[in-house]
Amino acid sequence: MPVILPKELTGAELQSMLKSNVNFKSLGGMRVEGLKLSEEDIKWWRDAKIGMFIHWGLYSLLGQGEWVRYNEKLPYCSYESLKNEFDPVDFSTDSWMDIARSLGANYCVMVTRHHDGFSLWDSPASYRGFTSVNSAAKRDFVKEFTRSCRKYSMKCGYYYSPMDWRFPGYFDPVGLSGNAELMKRQCYGQVEELMTQYGVPDILWYDGGWLAHKGSDTSSAWFWEPDKLNKMVRSHAPKIVINPRSGWEGDFYCDEGSSVISGGIITVPWEKNLCLCSGASWGWMENDPVQELDWLIRMLVNVIGRDGNILWNIAPDKNGRLSENVKNRIKEFGDWIRQHREAIYGTRGGPIEPVDDVFVTTFRENDVFLFVLDKVRFSKNVVSGLPGNVLSVTTLDGKPLAYTSGEGIKIDLQHLPDDVVPVIRISLDAEIKPVSSQVYFTARQ
To answer: What strand order describes the sheet that includes 442-444?
Structure first.
């Protein structure tokens, strides 16, 4: 497979092409002929819409987030000794699946090893055996998590960070090239373990390909050789869905953080990654406030209306648990999802371009689902650009709504249910096709 080196778009050029405020991580990653999945192979992921991210590890003992070791400049030995305290009480990964179901998630991504180097599985490739099996817990949590995913029919994803703060070569990969090579060897060995020890996972989610906390995942591709790394992954898991954070372009793009999404439909596979709580940290912080229900619903709607997925992060405490406040908010959110599931799962964004803070649409076959974000402003709008003749306009449960047609349709909202974001079904006389994909970057040989 020939490698195609990227030419990354930046600034106004990129912004113009995206027509959105998204900030994709690792745009311009290495392109490798034949490595990227087809639309057919990734369809299940696009249909799933909602995933649950789980940041949990040794750092959860301290309650200061997943970057605590680096931020607080904790000595290696004192941080490593925390493994002797890492022993969650009365904990089963099945409890995470209950939360994922409550959230409305169809896939879960577990942090198997973060930048601190502590691996949550029995990893022979781990440098100095820094693993949960060699901790007080003496447990392989990746094995347990994978079994729970399969038991609950949840698609299974592994987060993996190639970088590791324990290696001085990470901070000086040229001057300490031999040490950096040890870190790279650990990465390849551990990724292969994750692909082979527990059956084939469904998602591989990289993070932290940048070196010395500088540059980006793509600028460090010379070191990690992501073409070689991901060819190895494909040799074991040909259809696994891979994100772009290794320096290879990946099967989908990532927008990270809680910034509100605006702009047009994004016609490539993409995922919004953000926290259910404040977003001050991905790892557990005591008394971290959970987001308001209205905000969570509107964020989801704004993402799926632009043809994206959403990956909600939870941060369990040292015993793998969430606070009652977080669990209650998850249940409220999940209840709303279940009431509107027909307009969410198995849909695509569009066919009508979103109007920021007013409405977005999704569709399946010949039905358009219109999410009303602002009733007052929407009532002044005419919905135009429908790719077919209107057969009916109803609430999601089938109650007719009055409308008039001309250059578009104007919908009477008088009998629309009182809801955080009410949904209108518009049935057409023709099946709707997705907007054709655009290319957001060019390449040079």
So the answer is: 31-32, 3-7, 442-444
**For 3-343, which CATH superfamily applies?**
Glycosidases (3.20.20.80)
Domain 350-428: give its CATH architecture: Sandwich (2.60)
What is the structure's pLDDT at 407?
A: 85
How far apart CA 348 and CA 339 sit, in angstroms, is: 18
Residue 71, pLDDT > 90, answer yes
Question: Angle at Cα 283 formed by Cα 128 and Cα 224, nearest 5°?
Answer: 50
Q: Where in the chain is the domain with CATH 3.20.20.80?
A: 3-343
Helices 94-103 and 324-339, packing angle to 10 deg:
50
Domain with CATH 2.60.40.1180 in the chain: 350-428
Which residue in this structure is represented by tokens 């605006």?
262
Enumerate the β-bridge partners of residue 271.
Answer: 254, 309
Closest CA to 258 of 224, 211, 291, 225: 291
The whole-angstrom separation of Cα 175 and Cα 302 is: 46
Nearest to 53 by CA among 162, 205, 164, 193: 205
Count of beta carbons in the 10 Å neighbourhood of residue 74 = 17
Phi, psi of 425 (to 5 degrees): -100, 125
Asked whether residue 437 carries a pLDDT value surpassing 80, the answer given is no
Q: What is the mean pLDDT of residues 107-122?
A: 98
Number of C-beta neighbours around residue 92 at 10 A: 12
How would DSSP label each residue in 260-287? PP-BS---S-EEEEEESB-SS-SS-BTT
Q: SS3 for 107?
A: strand
Per-residue pLDDT, averaged over 181-185, amounts to 98
What mean pLDDT comes out for the span 201-212?
96
Rounded to whole angstroms, the Cα distance separating 390 from 383 reads 11
Question: Does the pLDDT value for residue 102 go beyond 90?
Answer: yes
Do the bridges between strand 270-275 and strand 253-256 make them parallel or antiparallel, or are there none, so unpaired?
A: parallel
Across 253-279, b (16+ Cβ under 10 Å) vs e yields bbbbeeeebebbbbbebbbbbbbbbee
Task: Please confirm whether the linkage preceding 400 is cis (ω < 30° from 0).
Answer: no
Is the pLDDT confidence value at 168 over 90? Answer: yes
| C-alpha radius of gyration, the chain, whole number | 23
